[in-house]
Structure formats: C-alpha cells, structure tokens
Amino acid sequence: MSIDLPILSRRTLLGAGLLAAGPALASLPRAAAPHPRLLERARDAFVRHGHRIARKDLIAIADYGVHSAIPRFFLYAPDTGALTALRVAHGRGSDPAHSGWLQRFSAQPGSAASSEGAYLTGEAYWGQHGASRRLIGLDPENSTAMARAIVIHGAWYCERQVLEKTGKLGRSEGCFAFSQADAGLVLDRLGPGHLLFSGRA
C-alpha cells in the first residue's frame, strides 16, 4: 500500500495563495495522495484490524493535515493503485475558529470534533441528512463513534457554492460530510466491511 507521490504542504498552499475564494478555486490543485506517514499508519491499522475487515478491495483515508478546500478524502484500491480524491468536512469542535484547518481530534461526546483512528464501515440508512452510512470506531481514539452517531453523509455546507463563497467547507458535528454528489459516490463504493482511516501526519 505504498504510494510515492508529491504532497501539498500547508506552507505551500498559503504561499501560493491557493486558499482564496471565488474564481481562484478553479485553479486549486488536488492533493496527490495522503501523506506518506499517514499511509503507513493506515497500513498498520489495516493489518491490526484485518480480522474485522471483510472487504479489502478498497480503503478510505481522510488526511486531515490538508485544508478543507483541497480534496483530502481518498478512496484507494490496493490491487490497482487507483486513487480517488474528494473534499470532506471536519467537525466544528476540531476547528473552533473555522479556519478550514483541523486543529485537534476528540472522541469526547458533545465535542462536535472529528476523531482519528481506524473505522469499520457499517450499514447504510436514511437519516436527517438523507442517505448515510454508520461507522464503528476500532481504536480507543474513536471508540465512541457509534454513541456519537459519527457517520458518512452529504451536507449542504460541502457544496461547491459554499466553497466558492468562503474558500473552505463548512463544518460537521464530527461526521465525514461531503457534497451530495460525492456522498453518493462514497456510499456506493465504500460499502459495509471496509476500513476508513482518519488522521494527520
């Protein structure tokens, strides 16, 4: 599960002025791949929790070391090396100033923060955000995921119009929130029994 591709750093993004709103968003680059250190952690989690991962054809990795304006949620097919990058929101408790950068992780109920670690994708259901998928936390850092109702879902604050107006996505209550179109793709490809790894280098 090794990918050797260039990674966009926070300093590079800021220096290039790539976080401006409006028309400048059209030129935003896509993050080439998750940070190598995060890939290593995801690989370790894949091995550590292998007995619980029924579907090994696809792995999801959320690289929260990247700004929310940049695609940072990756669907990776180990057999082919195919990589799909999408934008994903983080929790408002992880970014109180709404800068677009995740500042901290928390699994504390009521924190409204994103949690790091390995998740197992669960059943699909229809909730207040429409089509959604439950997530089971496999590590101590995200063991409260079910109790906190941390799920995959679509959200209006992840739509292109919000990004163009503000230069960043809105924030979730700790869930992995996407635009409606991207949520449909993730829900379709990332069925139950897959690994989703969340973190930052």
UniProtKB/TrEMBL annotation:
InterPro entries for this protein: TAT_signal (IPR006311), YkuD_2 (IPR032676)
Signal peptide extent: 1-26
Alphabetically ordered keywords of this record: Signal
Domain of life: Bacteria
Protein name: Twin-arginine translocation pathway signal
Organism, as annotated: Sandarakinorhabdus cyanobacteriorum
Lineage, top ranks: Bacteria, Pseudomonadati, Pseudomonadota, Alphaproteobacteria, Sphingomonadales
